[in-house]
Amino acid sequence: MSKKEDSGGKKCSHHTELYAEVPASCLPIVYSPEYNITFMGLEKLHPFDAGKWGKVIRFLKEEQFITDEIIVLAREASEADLLVVHTARYLNRLKNAILEGSREWSLVVATITEIPPLLFLPNFLVQRKVLRPLRTQTGGTIMAGKLAIDRGWAINVGGGFHHCSSDKGGGFCAYADITLAIKFLFERVEGVASATIIDLDAHQGNGHERDFLEDRRVYIMDVYNRHIYPGDGYAKRAIKRKVELDWGTEDSEYLQKVDLHSEGALNEARPDIIIYNAGTDILDGDPLGGLAISPQGIIKRDEIIFRAARRRGIPILMVTSGGYQKKTARIIADSILNLHRQGLIGEEALDVAGPSHVSLMMSKSVSSGATLAAI
To answer: What average pLDDT score do residues 172-183 get?
Structure first.
């Protein structure tokens, strides 16, 4: 399909349902029950808590911060949406099975999700029970990018698949949602021409780094355990502010570095939006992260990033990324509640910020004119 200009002068290649108007009564918190991966207990074979997203929402409801009526319901990213970043060859590899006799073997998906038994399930079940939830979370990140511009902040309770690039997945990441959210904004929203990724998951975010290696519009700060997966030296060339941590790094050192380097990053490049990858696999005892940050340290870390964005009037999109302990859902919920208590998110957050870049963006934001996308 040839590219056509939208009403704001941006080049858009396809119609999307992901940039629908959202009622003002909704908070920019994006979620769908479809995020959660549950099928015959197979999700328990990976250390990732594949139901943590629903638990976060349940905790927020119990604290009476949200109700179903004010959550923005995530939509599944369509193939046309995914093709904004992904190659057709990669998407076909996810879609197609390897035929051997009468069986279809889902080798690629089993490898990416690190759940070997998926190899032995019928391919149509793998598509429905594993890839569809990941596509819905990806759609949620793209939606939250637009909401962040409109409202000054947004949280996708899922997403953060930072090991996936345009043509390769890995580490439980099948779709490049961070890259997609940024590319959608660049293509569709007037006035968005630069982005800063602050990646604080315990692992290096090699997926978005590979995607933006030659793109000067995107500034990447990455803080990670230097000794663990993926160790992608090629992708590291894209990192503008690299902070490599050692095993067992604790709160004091960690928070000092996060504060120092986030301030430095945002002083070096004044972006139109911040994408904050807020992985909780930095938590002490995480089987994959190898760091030793307390729950209170994670809550403080998130506050540091949101406060830095708020001081500068920069819209911020948060995604939840990795976290491999059952208690991480509670910590994510507690952190969101703390951000609200601090006046950094919620209906009053824009008033706290005062006149800012956000008010300019709200007047320039471009809508596709699709139907409402909220519960």
So the answer is: 97
Beta-bridge mates of residue 73: 31
How far apart, in whole angstroms, are the C-alpha atoms of residue 269 and residue 118? 43
Q: Domain 16-36+43-350 maps to which CATH number in 3.90.76.10, 1.10.10.10, 3.40.800.20, 3.30.300.30?
A: 3.40.800.20
CA-closest candidate to residue 179, choices 168, 191, 169, 166: 166
Residue 99 has pLDDT above 80, yes or no: no
Q: Which residues of 321-344 are buried (b: 16+ CB within 10 A; e: fewer)?
A: bbbbbeebbbbbbbbbbbbbebeb
pLDDT at 108 > cutoff 90: no
Q: Which of 15, 86, 162, 163 is catalytic?
A: 163
Phi and psi at 10, nearest 5°, equal: -85, 155
All structural domains of the chain with their residue ranges: 16-36+43-350
Nearest to 143 by CA among 17, 319, 18: 18
pLDDT in tens, 122-143: 777 777 888 999 999 999 999 9
Mention every residue, 6+ apart, whose C-beta is less than 8 A from residue 348.
Answer: none
pLDDT of residue 366: 37
What is the average per-residue pLDDT within 10-25?
A: 88
Nearest CA among 54, 107, 16 for reference residue 326: 54
Per-residue confidence at 70, pLDDT binned at 50, 70, 90? Answer: very high
Count the neighbouring beta carbons within 10 Å of the beta carbon of residue 189.
Answer: 24
**What does the pLDDT look like over 250-291, one tens digit per residue?**
999 999 999 999 999 999 999 999 999 999 999 999 999 999
Q: Give the separation between CA 38 and CA 16, rounded to whole angstroms.
A: 28
For residue 261, indicate whether it is catalytic.
Answer: no
Amino acid letter, residue 98: I
Measured between alpha carbons, how far is 43 from 133 in angstroms, rounded to an integer? 12
Cα–Cα distance, 51 to 196 (Å, whole number): 29
